[in-house]
Amino acid sequence: xxxxGNNPASGQGQSSGQQTTGSDAVRRIQEKxxxxxxxxxxxxxxxxxxxxxxxxxxxxxxRTASQKEIRAAKERARKEGAEARRKAExxxxxxKKEAEEKSKAARRxxxxxxxxxxQRAEKEAENHNKAAEDxxxxxxxxxxxxxxxxPDEKVPDPEPPSSDSYTVREIPYNELQIQVPPxxxxxxxxxxxxxxxxxxxxxxxxxxNSVDTEAAVFERLGRHPKLTRLLGMSxxxxxxxxxxxxxxxxxxxxxxxxxxxxxxxxxxxSRVLLQCAxxxxxxxxxxxxxxxxxxNLALRxxxxxxxxxxxxxxxxxxxxxxxxxxxGKYYYGGKGVLPLRWMSPEAITRRRWTEKSDVWAFxxxxxxxxxxxVEPFAFVxxxxxxxxxxxxxEILPKPIGCSDNVYALMxxxxxxxxxxxxxxxxxxxxxxxxxxxxxx
Length: 440
What we know:
Elements: H1 22-39, H2 42-148, E1 176-185, E2 189-196, E3 199-206, H3 211-221, E4 230-235, E5 241-246, H4 253-264, H5 270-289, E6 292-293, E7 302-306, E8 316-319, E9 326-327, E10 331-332, H6 345-350, E11 352-353, H7 355-369, H8 383-391, H9 404-413, H10 423-439
């Protein structure tokens, strides 16, 4: 059989320090078995062959089992890796979602805090403004009360009369050649055309006890090129006081633009409309300088003395109708016939008029200019509903054909009182727009 000293599996019989692999050892054993079988008798050789064949089968089975185990181990490793990746991804997704939810919640909380802070600031500002206004009103009421307590003593005006003021002269009634019917008649007044010394004039018969008040406003404003001039006063046979003013041949601006739209299907060019707005603004600047509040500024109360729809140089308009004009930085009025569609929110809710409420009305007048004289909120029949809309913050839409810059100026007039421009600022802005439109 095998010689014990030559067993290759034992590692003996090899040079010192030399190592063999398993496959090398198997190959050497196979070579020795083959040599041994060839040198032995047949029985021994057959036995060697049998045990070698048995060894090969066992080796093949071992390799097959090992490969199966390797494949199974790889599959387990693959599945475990996939499962680990899936769990890691799910964990990462959950963490990301949680972070996003926390971020959204934080943003919502920040927005709520900012909104609450803004509302508190606005409320606080509103309270401060109201308190300041109330204190100012109380102070002036105290002044008024003290003035009333002075017996038979004339309180002087705070400012001297303007240098261009004039005294209204009395005109005998028989010098007037009155034409009938009236060119305008309403609940408040009627207007007749008349001849005075061969010149056409307008005769105003006011159906209320405010003739002297309106005459005093005329006197105070004096002769201004953008304000209707009072020529004199008269008294009819029934004793009624009459105002005599210059006559506007073209009528009022609402009538002129409406007629242009109806008869020619067009409106005036933008420079003509801007020229009209600038001239009205000049007149209102004079009224404000005299510490007066118009309270009835509208297109119907702008008289036209010269007009060309395409030529701004031909435009001559003047502010008229001082029947509701009052003196003072602030004026608190009662109920009565009021132009609700032109009134600011504070005038509607608190009956409080200032220069800034006239500015609001000027913005509506501009809207009328670019709307061919259409009545504001014409689609709403009820004045009460119009008042609700104005107080709630609704503003008139941009007229067709109106530029963004012009509409932006209108909206500035409809801002909160403190943010509205003065008439001086409006005149400067209108001049800039006029120059801009002249280049296009």
